[in-house]
Amino acid sequence: MARLQVLSVASEVYPLIKTGGLADVAGALPAALAAEGISMRTLVPGYPAVTAALKRAQAVHAFDDLFGGPARLLAGKAAGLDLLVIDAPHLYARPGNPYLEPDGQDWPDNAFRFAGLARVAAALGRGLLPNYAPGVIHCHDWQAGLTPAYFAFGEGPSVPTVMTVHNLAFQGAFPADLLGALGLPPRAFTVDGVEYHGQIGFLKAGLQLADRITTVSPTYANEICSDEFGMGLQGLLRGRAERLQGILNGIDTDVWNPGADPLIAAPYSAADPGARAADKAALQAEMGLAGSPDTLLFAVISRLGWQKGLDLLLDALPLLIAEGAQLALLGSGDAALEAGFRAAADAHPGQIACRIGYDEGLAHRIQAGADALLVPSRFEPCGLTQLCALRYGAVPVVARVGGLADTVIDASPVALAAEAATGVMFSPVNQTMFEGALRRTAALYRQPEIWARLQRNGMATDVSWHGPAQDYARLYRSLIPAAAPARPRGRA
């Protein structure tokens, strides 16, 4: 079977630039798809970290003007990725977070910065490069959402598009008076086009006009069609439900491999987990927790915010302390939550520890040393941290939402009897049910044989990209007949 060329359009890609799970997916998919006969190139903005990492970059096209200045398209490789990089210093040569100014506010020209990404993607689909013709364009999140719109409302042939929603809460809405400046005609500003509550909706445009929509877990695909989780887009999504598919994320099991992880104190495996005790001791020492091998050590690796339910954990700390457990937290976000966890750590030294910020190495060591990982999210499209926890033998304690519901098997009496359980799950997401899950986790931990079985079951779970890559490959190939003759695009 001929190798299908797919262009991935992403605003971040691990390990070059990362703010969340989107980067992990964009970074892992190309290698996973290679085994399925798919050749994937990734189009990414030329942030300083990206251009610095490019190896033997070649300028393959020049733009006289890309939303306010000249730009070049660079082709090169970095971190094993085949990249096309938009070298547009006036749009992307800025330090730090790719979306935010140093004071935490959105860059005021984000509409143009990410319209540039989408416009170049559409140009590539229309034959910008003489020796490159992607058969499918895969757009990730709102930053790539105008790509289908440039096909629909521009001149020339089109390429089938897939729009993936990593988190529906981030939608990219901008003032309507930017329509012409973004290169879109007046006819684009309708409910069947880019208009969304009187604004230009980047994500809405992608969801409306792409040939297929995916999101990152089957349960989340159902949830976003509901009034509770649809974030104002549920009507559109219900109307396109036959084109919507949930494909579960995976993780890079080479990067996340407790048997060969250079970032942890002692490697171990499901067959020989004994060294995990050394990782727990090392984590307790690194975080300033009391060195106690028998104490239940909970952990969090997360953005601190309402979505992630960390306010529930903050309010549950008296229970955690009463249970004699420890907490190691790594994350940043909401200032009040950061202050609350810092205060708790100060008030309970040796029992609660927090590191505000993100540290990739510490994240690995927490997964290797914690007994249980807490993910009490109010909604969670997929979640990657619980997949890493399963891989490392940290028992996940999760809300029954989105991808958490799809990846963790609750330690119910039936699942325990069948020796199938991998974690603890609670629903609905409220204080009472979360605290009940903490008590249940503590009770399970006091039964070493059951706890060890939970760990073994989790470590035996396939959290790789193998199955998801097969699903994406089938999806891409299902679109190819639609590409054959070239046609102008309208509403899908």
Q: Tags for this entry?
A:
alpha/beta; Rossmann fold; nine-stranded mixed sheet; six-stranded parallel sheet; 36% helix
How would you characterize the overall build of this protein?
- This protein has helices at residues 21-34, 48-53, 89-92, 110-125, 147-152, 202-209, 218-223, 234-239, 276-287, 310-322, 335-347, 360-369, 385-392, 402-407, 413-417, 431-445, 448-460, 466-483, and strands at residues 4-9, 38-45, 55-63, 71-78, 81-87, 136-140, 161-165, 173-175, 195-196, 199-201, 212-215, 244-246, 297-304, 326-333, 352-356, 372-375, 395-399, 424-426.
- α10 packs across α16 (431-445).
- The protein folds into two domains: 4-250 and 467-483, Rossmann fold (3-Layer(aba) Sandwich), CATH 3.40.50.2000; 273-462, Rossmann fold (3-Layer(aba) Sandwich).
- β9 (195-196) and β10 form a beta hairpin.
- It is built from 18 helices and 18 strands.
- The two termini are 28 Å apart.
- It is globular.
- It is 36% helix and 20% strand.
